[in-house]
Design brief:
Number of helices: 8
Largest sheet: 7 strands, parallel
CATH architecture: 3-Layer(aba) Sandwich
CATH topology: Rossmann fold
Strand order of the largest sheet: 3-2-1-4-5-6-7
CATH class: Alpha Beta
CATH superfamily: NAD(P)-binding Rossmann-like Domain
Number of strands: 7
Shape: globular
């Protein structure tokens, strides 16, 4: 068997949230290219279907489900629908989230805090409970990848929305705890911590706060923002047999930003 065969995902089914654009879209396409069938979840039905069409063009099955995962009950409904329809999910990627709103800490309302924490953290908990729990019961192993952030351990500067740092730090510890609980069941749980990537969200920040984006660029040793396609290979690794001995890890991919 070639070493590259260990990265294949043939016969596996992936559920990935925040999959219509940016990092989610790139990870979904990369895993489909490696052989996985994909359940795509996002609020943007039109762009979600575009991603699904790209996956089908690779010869893989793709199911698009439009859902707002800032509501925990919607997360529960999503998980149960996916398990009812497909019986088994082999790979779960909790990608949905984002800073979304540049709200100073002293001005953020409790309603805003709860909604954004639910989007960034509670959605992952609910899907891990439902789909990870099914992986345990089915006793066939599995892979869970949580998309955290370098803001899990360093604070963004000159920006509000501190729900983001809080949620992503909690995501890291949730990842570690679940990794310990589920390792005996053949389920690995790892986190990816992206740094500055030129996603749609950061393109918006660039238009609204160009000085902030330029300031970050000066602190990236490789001299450029990451592109969404740079994340796909790492996600494939964590989803595949090649990473079977890695669990509870937090893999930073940031162009060296956090080195200084």
């Amino acid at each position: 068997m070639s070493i590259l065969d260990r990265f294949r995902l043939d016969g596996k089914r992936l559920l990935i949230t925040g999959a219509s654009r940016g990092l989610g879209r790139s990870m979904a396409l990369a895993m489909a290219d490696a052989g996985a069938d994909v359940v795509l979840v996002s609020r943007d039905a039109e762009r979600l279907e575009q991603t699904a069409s790209e996956i089908r063009a690779l010869g893989r099955d793709a199911t698009a489900i439009a859902a707002d995962l800032s509501a925990p009950t919607t997360c529960e409904e999503l998980a149960r629908r996916a398990l009812d329809e497909f019986n088994r999910i082999d790979i779960l990627v909790n990608n949905v989230g984002g800073r979304t709103e540049n709200i100073p800490l002293a001005e953020q309302t409790l309603e805003q805090w709860r909604r954004l924490m639910d989007l960034n953290l509670t959605s992952a908990f609910v899907l891990m409970r439902e789909i990870g729990g099914a992986m345990v019961r089915q006793a066939q192993g599995g892979r869970i990848i949580n998309i955290a952030s370098i803001n899990s351990f360093v604070v963004g500067r000159n920006i509000g929305g501190r729900h983001y740092e809080t949620a992503k730090a909690a995501m890291m510890q949730l990842t570690r705890a679940a990794a310990v609980d589920w390792a005996p069941h053949g389920i690995t749980v790892n986190a990816i911590c992206p740094g500055p990537f030129m996603t749609d969200a950061n393109l918006r920040w660039k238009r609204e706060y160009p000085d902030m984006i330029e300031g970050i660029l000066k602190l990236i040793p490789v001299g450029a923002y990451g592109e969404p396609d740079d994340l796909g290979p790492l996600a494939v690794y964590l989803a595949s047999d090649a990473s079977r001995f890695m669990t509870g890890a937090a893999l930073v991919i940031d162009g060296g930003y956090t080195l200084s």
